[in-house]
Write a structure and sequence with these properties.
The protein has 86 residues and is of the alpha+beta class. The protein contains 3 helices and 4 strands; from the N terminus they run βαβαββα.
Length: 86
């Protein structure tokens, strides 16, 4: 099952929108969702702050700022295909 990671922070209005979109997509697609609040973590803030929210699928950054549902479904299918070839 693909693992989706959402990096977010306090005071990020786009992060709330991304969270809601991913929750809706979980009703349609199977994937593990991990939410990571980068607030106070200097390493994560340096890596992600200017791009929030950041969405990764199986460790690959696939979205910044906005989640595009159709593109998300395609990328999720690609991740499933890669997992099937291992």
């Amino acid at each position: 099952m693909p693992k989706v990671t959402l990096y977010h922070a306090a005071d990020c209005h786009l992060c709330g929108r991304a969270r809601a979109q991913l929750a809706e997509l979980r009703g349609e697609e199977e994937f593990e969702l991990e939410e990571v609040d980068i607030t106070g973590d200097s390493e994560l803030e340096a890596r992600h702050r200017e791009w929030l929210p950041v969405v990764e699928i199986d460790g690959e950054r696939v979205f910044t700022y906005h989640v595009h549902p159709e593109a998300f479904r395609r990328k999720l299918a690609q991740a499933r295909g890669r997992a099937g070839t291992l």
